[in-house]
Amino acid sequence: MKCIKKSSTSYSNENAVKASFAFSLLIGKSGKPYTIVEDLILPAAKAMVSKMISKGAANNLNLISLSIKKRIDSLSGNIKEQLLRRINECDYFSLQLDESTDITNKSILLCYVRYNYENTIFEDILFVISVIHTTAEEIFTNINEFIILNEIEWTKCVGVSTDGA
């Protein structure tokens, strides 16, 4: 019991960072949404530590950073930057549009991009957005706003295909 008590009361920021990465790894492996840490894992850990060790030790768990969302956002932002850079460096690209619905039955527009980069053809998801009406005008407006906002040259677009979107 002394060993557990000592390790729970002698904490450091380094241990809190290690715990945060351990959370991130477990969440990544489980495939669960990152919010499960805030909604379930941390409250459960606090309840267990509070009952098994002490309320003070449970309060030390507040030192653990739950910046998993920030890590995910940072990584996805970097991926988007790389994709936009590749599209701007290529000679041409084409777009593929598809419509789907999410679990709440809202219409979703998926826009894929195909482009040549370093002598290899790539296909990536350019963006996914929720749309209210799936009219041709709304779809074009959304695509055009994305293209202009991200400074992609329309003149490089050599084709747009759709399967009914």
From TrEMBL:
Domain of life: Eukaryota
PANTHER family the UniProt entry points to: EPM2A-INTERACTING PROTEIN 1, LOW QUALITY PROTEIN: ZINC FINGER BED DOMAIN-CONTAINING PROTEIN 5-LIKE
Protein name per UniProt: DUF4371 domain-containing protein
Species classification: Eukaryota, Metazoa, Ecdysozoa, Arthropoda, Hexapoda
